[in-house]
Amino acid sequence: MKLFNILLFVTATFFGNPNPNNKIETLSDTEIERFNNQVTEVKALINASGAYNTKIAFLVDMRIKSGKNRFFVYDLVNDKILDQGLVANGSGSETAVRGDLKFSNEPNSNCTSLGNYTIGKSYKGMFGKSYKLSGLDPTNSNALKRAIVLHSYSAVPEEEQDHYIALSHGCPMVNEIFFKKLEKIIDASKSNIVLNIYY
Q1: Do residues 136 and 116 make contact, with C-beta atoms less than 8 angstroms apart?
Q2: Residue 59 and residue 88: Cα distance in Å, rounded?
């Protein structure tokens, strides 16, 4: 079965299961096509490298508005979405048109950077436990220099909503409950997990 068809099935039947009390909208055809393209890219990267987790990847679609689930935990073996949650974008990525984002790899830009990352070691910072991110592409090569990390923040809501959520300084910032789910996956992984942020 082609990945596109699998995702149509997953979208129709799976979305909502991780948060049964939460109304979750399905992905549009355009979003599914965009997602498929990124999964293909991530798989190619992982296969070429041999250094990354071959079972799980994280993908973030920054074109979906921030009040909707756009951080996806993906099963690379069975081609299905395992979980999803809200994630903030950088304050510097905001433009005059709400929802239309810009991106930058420059230090002090407070922008989200697009591209593939590897999720590295955890540390305790101002937001508690956080994971260092290393950029693998020219579009996010300054991630370590910019201190771009995966972390949680109490102001990020757990449930989807119609309005936009809190902004970060460029980090993929999630709510505390979703972070705990990601934490279990990351800490159990024997190899680095790839995080793909796209638009």
Answers
A1: yes
A2: 13
**Residues sharing a CB contact under 8 Å with residue 69, sequence separation 6 or more, in sequence order:** 24, 84, 85, 86, 160
Q: Tens of pLDDT along 138-181?
A: 999 999 999 999 999 999 999 999 999 999 999 999 999 999 99
196 with 38: CB under 8 angstroms? yes
Question: Who's near 76: CB < 8 A, 6+ residues apart?
Answer: 39, 42, 43, 46, 54, 55, 56, 57
| Dihedral over alpha carbons 35, 103, 106, 136 (to 10 degrees) | 10
Phi, psi of 168 (to 5 degrees): -105, -175
d(CA 190, CA 145): 25
Distance, C-alpha 188 to centroid of its chain: 18
The full length of the chain comes to 199
